[in-house]
Write a structure and sequence with these properties.
heterodimer, A: about 110 residues, mainly beta, 7-stranded mixed beta sheet, 4-stranded antiparallel beta sheet, 11 strands, B: 4-stranded antiparallel beta sheet
Chain lengths: ~110, ~110
């Protein structure tokens, strides 16, 4: 079966520190992968999506970047975190025209 | 551009009563419509989708949704609500040419009370 793993689940980082959130998908090959951010427990914003290794599309200008070093691995990064980067980050992947989400990572920037 | 509207921030229902969570959409082309549920501090769980075919779509946990093209709506329904259905519900849309990039509504908090 296909599964998605996302870690860490919770992260508290100081302003100006780097960030790395990782996501891996199992049981499929060449999936479309996505990073979403959920602010204030409601609205979901698409940050990045990838259709293959090394292929990243950014949806909004921001302090974050994404990479896809392997087919089933998607990484969200920042060199220097801002307070406004706090939020709930969700990795997702596509199977049969449906997007499935990971359990999310809570990031608090202090 | 595509968009989704969920006009109700919160819906309150008594357990055992039917529930409806409303969703309308705007999209160029044929819509792919989805409902997701989110429990506190969790990721989104897929409930059901409409791609093509029957306008009434059945999904997980007894939920169903009806696609109405003329009203551009995709309301989520359940005949008999449970307290455990209390959660945040999101409607989302994409199109055939949308690259599976979903646009989400702002969510509706469903509260089912005894």
């Amino acid at each position: 079966s296909q599964t998605i793993h996302q870690w860490p689940a919770t992260l508290v980082q100081p302003v100006g520190s780097p960030l790395s959130l990782e996501c891996t998908v199992e049981g499929t090959s060449n999936p479309n992968l996505y990073w979403y951010r959920q602010a204030a427990g409601r609205g979901l914003q698409l940050l990045f999506y990838s259709v293959g290794i090394g292929q990243i599309s950014s949806e909004v200008p921001q302090n974050l970047s994404a990479s896809r070093p392997q087919d089933r691995q998607f990484i969200l990064s920042s060199k220097k975190l801002l307070l406004s980067d706090s939020g709930f980050y969700l990795c997702a992947w596509t199977s049969r025209n449906t997007i499935y989400f990971g359990e999310g990572s809570w990031l608090t920037v202090v | 551009a595509q968009s989704v509207a969920q006009p109700e921030d919160q819906v309150n229902v008594a357990e055992g009563n039917p529930l409806t969570v409303k969703c309308t959409y705007s999209v160029s082309g044929n819509p792919y419509l989805f409902w997701y549920v989110q429990y506190p501090n969790r990721g989104l769980q897929f409930l059901l989708k409409y791609i093509t075919g029957d306008n009434l779509v059945k999904g997980s946990y007894g939920f169903e949704a009806e696609f109405n093209k003329s009203q551009t709506s995709f309301h989520l329904k359940k005949p008999s609500a449970l307290v455990s259905d209390s959660a945040l519900y999101f409607c989302a849309v994409t199109t055939t040419g949308g690259g599976n990039k979903l646009t989400f509504g702002t969510g509706t908090q469903l509260k089912v009370e005894l």
